[in-house]
Amino acid sequence: MIKRILVIGGYGNFGSFISKSLAKEKNIQVIIAGRSLEKAKASKANISAVNHIEAVALDINQNFENSLKTIEPHIVIHTSGPFQSQGYRVAQLCIKHNVHYIDLADGRDFVSGITQLDSEAKKHNILVCSGASSVPCLTSALIDDYIKEFEQLESVDYGITTAQKTTRGLATTAAILGYTGKPFKTLIDGRMQNIYGWQNLHQHRYKHLGSRLLGNCDIPDLSLFPERYPSLKNIRFYAGLEIPFIHVTLWGLSWLVRIGLIKHLNRAAPLLLKTSFLFDWLGSANSAFHMTLTGKDEKHHKKTITFELTARSGDGPYIPCMPAILMATKLANQKIEIVGAHPCIGFMTRLEYLEALKEMDISWSVDIHKS
């Protein structure tokens, strides 16, 4: 049976890649949706598909329930952020109409709070999966795989540095600016403590890209991982921009927010995003991710495992798309029996995730040190 998959935001940066990937599957029919029917049709025209692609106009804030009734999808993939400012109405309507739901949310409260829909989703025998993105899906898959190498895992320190010459959208920009300079909690020395968005300015040296600046970033992991990995004493996650001037400028603005001279920055997202494109000539299409896990081995000696991934040719932004593609494909092939509402943790292995990246200009390495 062919499964109909509705991709909300299907012509956006993430949605277009997801639509293109799923359209290759014999048992999947893709419906590209967004507020602009013209953009949906244009995206459809650029995709080679096994089954006929549909293009529809859809606004999640207006008559979304009627759209669900008309389109009759089996699975909905929600890519239209920022999710930090959204409630769960889309997911709730999917449950009501017996439609599996997947989103690419990276909002901390949004993803960790999705479990409030668990009982209702189970009643309808529906899977609601939030955070089908790099965090917490890839990050938890890495920890789940490498934790077996430790007698006790104590610290996880990780981060992402983006490429200047890659597509970037307003929703992602607004999400970052939403917590810049604002306090949020992470696990430090065994207890939850406040840190501030985009502060703790420091350099991290990547094997293939050299030094990049990083700062504090708020993600769902910071809420989810202390419970999932109770031996952890420290969890730190960072993000960074390739051009030092842009990164430092945002760091400076974070202080104005922190001391109260600016209330918040997300309203400036359109201007700051537009300005950032002026610096593309200074950057590259290369991004990277690293994760350093530290703990004790079976002899109680210190052990460190560092995983590093490098994405070239502008392929970095496709990494967050992989969980939604894999989840939708598994659901279409009836390979997921779990129902209820869950963060996207434990649904795929490290090897599954990395295997999906092999066709892109992406490489990774693992270093192990003992002392």
Structure characterization notes:
The chain has 371 residues and is of the alpha/beta class. It is 32% helix and 28% strand. The protein contains 13 helices and 16 strands. The protein has a 7-stranded parallel β-sheet with strand order 3-2-1-4-5-6-15, with helices on both faces. The chain has a 7-stranded mixed β-sheet with strand order 10-11-12-7-13-14-16. It has a two-stranded antiparallel ribbon with strand order 8-9. Helix 8 crosses helix 11.
Q: Output the strand order for the largest sheet.
A: 3-2-1-4-5-6-15
Strand content: 25-35%
Q: What's the number of extended β-strand segments?
A: 16
Helix content: 25-40%
Largest sheet: 7 strands, parallel
Which spans of ≥5 residues are poorly predicted at pLDDT below 50? none
> What would you call the structural class?
alpha/beta
Radius of gyration in whole Å, from Cα? 20 Å
Helical stretch count?
13
Please give the alpha-carbon distance between the first and last residues.
Answer: 55 Å
Oligomeric grouping of the chains: single chain
- Average pLDDT works out at 94
Form type: globular
Task: Describe this protein with a few key phrases.
371 residues; seven-stranded parallel sheet; 28% strand; seven-stranded mixed sheet; 32% helix; alpha/beta; 13 helices
Short précis:
This protein has helices at residues 13-22, 37-45, 64-71, 89-96, 108-112, 118-123, 134-146, 170-179, 221-228, 244-258, 269-276, 322-332, 350-355; strands at 3-8, 28-34, 54-57, 75-78, 100-103, 127-130, 152-161, 183-188, 191-196, 202-206, 210-216, 234-240, 287-296, 302-311, 340-343, 362-370.
